[in-house]
Specification:
This protein is an alpha/beta fold. It has twelve helices and 13 strands. The strands form four sheets. The chain has a seven-stranded parallel β-sheet with strand order 3-2-1-4-5-6-11, sandwiched between helices. A two-stranded parallel ribbon has the order 7-10. A two-stranded parallel ribbon has the order 8-13. Strand 5, helix 5 and strand 6 form a beta-alpha-beta unit. It is globular and about 55 Å long. It starts with a strand and ends in a 6-residue tail after the last helix. The structure holds NADP nicotinamide-adenine-dinucleotide phosphate.
């Protein structure tokens, strides 16, 4: 049986949908999910997916959530750094105790020990927990979601300037749905050739180039302006983001400025059989309809 955690979240739900699409019916006994609120997964239950309750904040829920699972797709949680580290360690320990055969963990492109990024620290810790656990595992290192650009780019278009503390650093962007497709492919693969898959796109671009492409596609002016991390954090807190999230994003963009989110490669295609949607395609999808009437 394959079990996906976080199946009420945006990535986890898409992973389940791709697993359903790739698996011959019936689903019973083959596919399960672990979620904090099973009521929100009633649509999956109706399709034959076994819906279990599991909350990484409550390790006592995880023995039954992970019982009988052969392949566990472990979707990373959200929230402040220390909380996430504990949650994800709880999940790894529970998987080991439950005798899970293989874990597929949605990690992050940047896990370097010298990275300023809080996200790197979280994922590095979970990768270390997996290495110490005795479990067999595969690391699916995710780049930035293209949907994040849709959000920040959409806001930036209002004022014509995209302000980020990302210097001249380049990013590789992939859509959540493509990443979910790759995770599903990994979880169903009879065998995998590698332990670490970097699910980046095939090109990386800096934000000046991305802003210029958005401007071209939307027909509205947009330029990129690199700002200081502290000014960015203050601005996004004023915009309503919680302190912890603003700080974490600030450190992420400093890591981008250092070139830590720019990896490109063919690991995605090795799992899925074709490359993810290109940057130009993603920008067209998200911004072609944002031209001023
Ligand atoms: N690469 C990127 O650009 C990027 C951007 C944002 C986030 N992320 C990471 O990718 C993950 C998935 O992204 P997403 O878009 O699906 O985020 P999302 O829609 O906000 O979903 C958050 C996920 O965290 C899970 N979660 C939170 N607290 C939990 C707990 N105590 N126990 C078990 N699960 C818990 C949720 O599980 P339920 O299903 O039970 O609600 C849900 O699946 C995020 O959680 C974050 O770690 C990556």
């Amino acid at each position: 049986m394959v079990l996906v955690t976080g199946a009420n979240g945006q990535l986890g739900r898409r992973i389940v949908q791709h697993l359903i699409a790739r698996s011959p019916a019936p689903m019973a006994g083959k596919l399960a999910v672990s979620v904090r609120d099973p009521g929100k997964a009633a649509d999956l239950a109706a399709r034959g997916v076994e819906v279990r309750h599991g909350n990484f904040d409550h390790p006592e829920t995880l023995a039954s959530a992970f019982a009988g699972v052969e392949r566990l797709v472990l979707v990373s949680t959200d929230g402040p750094r220390e909380q996430r580290i504990v949650q994800q360690r709880n999940a790894v320990s529970a998987a080991a105790r439950a005798g899970v055969q293989h874990v597929y963990y949605t990690s992050f492109l940047d896990v370097a020990a010298d990275s300023p990024s809080e996200f790197a620290a979280i994922h590095r810790d979970t990768e270390a927990a997996l290495a110490d656990s005795g479990l067999a595992y595969t690391l699916l290192r995710l780049p930035l979601y293209a949907e994040g650009l849709a959000m920040i780019g959409g806001l930036a278009l209002e004022g014509g300037v995209l302000y980020l503390p990302a210097g001249n650093g380049a990013v590789s962007l992939v859509s959540r749905d493509d990443l979910a497709q790759a995770a599903a492919a990994a979880a169903l693969a009879p065998r995998l050739d590698k332990q670490v898959y970097e699910l980046s796109g095939q090109v990386a671009a800096d934000y000046a180039s991305i802003a210029a492409r958005i401007a071209r596609v939307s027909g509205r002016p947009l330029v990129y302006k690199a700002v200081q991390e502290t000014d960015y954090v203050t601005a996004v807190v004023e915009h309503g983001l919680p302190d912890w999230q603003a700080r974490a994003l600030g450190t992420l963009f400093v890591a981008v400025a250092e070139g830590r989110m720019a990896a490109t490669g063919n690991d995605f295609a090795a799992l899925v059989g074709h490359p993810p949607k290109s940057l130009d395609c993603l920008i067209h999808e998200h911004f072609a309809t944002r031209s001023k009437a």
